[in-house]
Exodeoxyribonuclease 10
Amino acid sequence: MTIIAIDFETANERRDSACAVGLAWIAHGRVVRRESRLIRPPELRFAPGNIRVHGILPADVADKPPFDAVMAEFLPDLAGGLVLAHNASFDIGVLRASLHACGLAAPPLAYLCTVQVARRVFPHPAGCGLSKVAGRLGIRFAHHDAGEDAYACAEIALAAMRETGAADMADLARRIDLPVTRVAGGPPPPPRAGGAISARVMQALRPAPSAPPRFVVRGSTGNRYDVTLEERAGAPYLRCTCMAGRHGVRCRHVKALAVGDITDLLSDNVADLAHVVRTLAADPIA
């Protein structure tokens, strides 16, 4: 049986907004393969809190493949093996929701949560978060990088096997009385009235701001610049007051805002930016 640890990072609060995946395969008592991929989520809406956690920006994934293309090579191993994840309900939820968002059936899965494993094998008053358990076990990794997190998850499971003397993961689950969770596969649920499709339609029909939106951004030296949506030759464009923008150059501030990157946005008008991103994407000569 294939044993594979998995970790997802998401762009925002939605489970179907995966922007990175990491995987680590276990065989013969060690990690034998590691993979990580960036993913373009269905919409380039990145929540500031998520960016602060994993550091992935919209510009980093704008040209990456979508979820179904990235995961195609890994699904056979996931469906036919035992999946490990730290706080597995989250990662399994991301996998299933993202497949459904692509119109694909979710495969049947068997998984083991390494948070629950750690609580039984390595209990500690400080808790059993990934970085805390890894730190206590001497596992070195870069937290919130999907590939690194999957590796740490796999190493925690291997450490639990050694600690309990288990012959394999199934034996580990039996020794610590932690049943393997199994979820049935199935097609995506039909859209509900007033559900996600209706929400997207309503968002697209939302009127534009009454005045041309203006965004205040932070420059590399800390200076503040204004970026305004204007019209030139019948097409919308963003104009920046930085030196490059004043000379007609498409500066980094404009490039970032055009894909929804709010890392340097100082003004409190993220909703206006969402409208601008949709406007630019809809106009082929913008």
Summary: The radius of gyration is 22 Å. The first strand starts at residue 3 and ends at 10. The CA atoms of residues 19 and 39 lie 4 Å apart.
